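Q: What does the predicted 3D structure of BtrH N-terminal domain-containing protein look like?
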Amino acid sequence: MEESAHKVRKAVRVDVRTTRHCETTALGVLLRHQGLDLSEAMLFGLGSGLSFVYWDAKGMDFPFLGGRVKPFELTRNLAARLGLDLRVRETASPRRAWENAVAPLEAGQPVGLQLDSHHLDYFEPKVHFGGHVVALYGYDDTDAYLVDTTQQGGAVSTSLTGLARARAERGPMTARHRSFTLTAPADPPSLPDAIVPAVTACADAFLDPPIANLGHRGVEKAGKLVRGWLRRAADPARDLPRAALLMEEGGTGGALFRNLYRDFLAECAESAGLPDRSRLRTGHRLYAEAARGWTEVAALVARAGETGDERCLGQAGDLLAELARLEREAMGELSRLGR
């Protein structure tokens, strides 16, 4: 992509096709620059990205439901699966952080940045999220040129001061001015060779979480606790619809990332050279059902906040209990892939 010559001081030509989740959007930009063009669902699945966490810590306004692995774990997983050279830079120095970010640009390579979305000029709504990831492809004297998700505008710009604040923010899920690049090997692994370990690793982690807040145990726990959310919320009319919005539209691809994993499994089931494609088809069928269920949960949570009707949360709790069982069954099937 090109900007006007008088405006941009340094820019790398990139394919700014955007997708729905921030980390996979940035990964897509970096990998297409390397000649690897994979769907968002494939990037998410190869990174063993699906998970679940129910997080309600002291000082939090409202519980958080997460549907993926922690920030940057997806990138590390993907690099390992595809044999990519992942170079990560972190520092406490803002000056060194900027040098780390622009050095790849000077060499003709876009760079990924992890930062807090709150300080980006274009970002809406203004919320603190320290695990946000963007691709930086250019800058001038006042602005940085980024690629973000479709819903945030795709190819966007933010002030250099805003970018510096976003990278320097400290708090949950933040990193120390993290920047990273990816370089593809001359002879990358075949997709079938990468898919099987990615699927089984994701399934095994989901089936055997270390604590009750994670994986299928976390979904089951959410089913019990969601019933009291009207009492837990400081402002139910604000907090419950916002939680539902984040599940469906907060960069998750819908259904708390279950739509992405459903599409990944569908793509895998059509790939030649994969063993046990019947297991992949079963996993796809079950995750298609689970995705519909998660969208229904979000709608029930939103309705409870809008109406104050606690019965909606009871229905959501019952559905989450069923989703815990459904996803446990799907992951049990997928954990045996290739075995």
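A (community wiki): The structure tokens above were generated from the sequence. The first helix runs from residue 22 to 32. The beta strands are 10-11, 50-55, 64-68, 85-89, 111-115, 132-139, 143-147, 155-159, 179-183.
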